[in-house]
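note to self — DONT lose this again. spent like an hour looking for the file last time. sequence + predicted structure for the chain T wanted, 220 res
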Amino acid sequence: MASPHRSTPARRRVGRPSGPTEHGAASRERILDAAAAVFAQVGYDRARMADVVEASGMTKGSVYFHFESKEALAVAVLTEKHAQWLDRVQARLATAPPGLQRMEALLPAMLDLHRDDPDAWVISRLAHNLAEVPATRILATELARRWIDRVADLIRDAQHIGEVSDEVDPQLLATVLVGAFDGLKTTIETVSDDPRAADQQLEAGGALLLTMMQSVALPR
């Protein structure tokens, strides 16, 4: 006599869940914020995953559940913070009329961002760090070009309405401005131990960059 048919119990899934949960998303965001603060304070090279665990107030297992290495964590911080940074600057620029006035609003918007969000300093530093790692160089380059392209679009808009000379190469000027601002931040971080003095130096340097940018404007 044939043995009765037995249903095979469903296998339990092991490992990470297939999709994000509300709790998981909140935990991930908490880890990213903690990592951004750690990277901003000590730099990518000196930062340890243990520092991020401590800063996040979460368990080691929870942090490694979301990010398996410091490199993966740095990539996530750079990608998401960079996107947030661009969106915030873009929203600020949208309140200014297109053309030269929007160009002139660019540097004040960037300065306000760094004044309001100390972790914003981490973006350019992480980009330089990850550009030196072969596995992440393409990402770092892509993000830098994305920011340069945004600035170049502002310059093209000003050219289109006749406020900036057509002889100016928008992509080149945008590269100079972004590079100068990032270089200014790096230099100030190196020579200044006083956050308030650093903010003042950054603002003064931003004013000089604004004067340089205004030099390409056509007479009104």
